[in-house]
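Dear colleague,

As promised, here are the two records you asked about, laid out in our usual form so they can be pasted straight into your sheet.

NAME FIELD: protein one
SEQUENCE, THEN STRUCTURE:
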Amino acid sequence: MAKTLDKSFSNIKFLAMDVDGVLTDGKLYFGRNPDPMVAFHVQDGFGLQLARAAGIRIAWITGRKNISILARSRELEIDDVVMGITDKLATLQELLTRHNLFFSHTAFIGDDIVDIPVVGAVGLGVAVADAVPDVKEAADYITTRGGGAGAVREVVDLILKRSGRWDTALKKVLRGC
């Protein structure tokens, strides 16, 4: 991995991401309930716990409104969850201003065209392995794992290991189990 990319991973204080296609596989299952069912990967959830233990703020920014997203975010104690928005870049700017953080210390994980402005604006823009080609082209890093299949965990592990925060975060999380 290039030295500058190593530095990008090590400087992250804020991790934001899309939900559908990043934390889920992008499939929506419709049944009797008006909200579609989605599945979240347990390894991504554990990775987000590790990130929080390392002092990294987490944000989910998604165009979809879904009770499953809200339930999972509450379970994982996600810092910021913004649903039903179209301008993810403006939303991220508002969050960064509120938390006195900067784009240069932010990573964003996306999978589709609407994520490109954010992927290009942050210090570390990430595309999941099954992202559309335009997002991959805009990204600094492309995961080896797909959305909903551990891609978020892959990114968190890299951030924590490259910044020297892995051992401390792991100990904190394991003490809490």
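NAME FIELD: protein two
SEQUENCE, THEN STRUCTURE:
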Amino acid sequence: MKVISVYGYSKSGKTTTVECLIKELNRRNYSVGTVKEIHYESFAIDTEGSNTHRHWKAGAELVCARGLYETDILFKKKLSIPEILKFYAQDYVILEGVTDFDVPKILCTSSIEDIQECLNPSVFAISGVISNKISRYDDLPVINAITDIERLTDLVEKAALDWVSIK
């Protein structure tokens, strides 16, 4: 399994970039999984008063909600990315919004100032809103995921780390 992360500020084009990468990797016959980091402190799938919440309150250590078209396994703690990746068997896993895991990254930004603030050595490409304004930043390509997804995906295929080798 190969892993990359797409990160940047809100409204910078992260989700659009991830969507385009998923479609192009699928077109290339790869299977794809994703992990979406949510940075809102009040975020919770499980809500007070729901049946699953009542299971927690009664003392269940792990709760699963199984519906007609979706199954959610709820952990009452934040898992590390390595713990989460153990559940995946896809060819590629794209992490969205994850900055605290050392894998190659695509930085999505809206401005050069955001690039300067968020850039780190693990970035191999820049995308997002800024790609409508510039095509390079120093030695890094700036690629529009909507209009040039093939080139961005080519870079992903070269840069993505094989998870087996970094466990």
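A couple of things worth noting about protein two: DSSP finds six helices and ten strands in the chain. The chain has a mean pLDDT of 91.

Best,
R.
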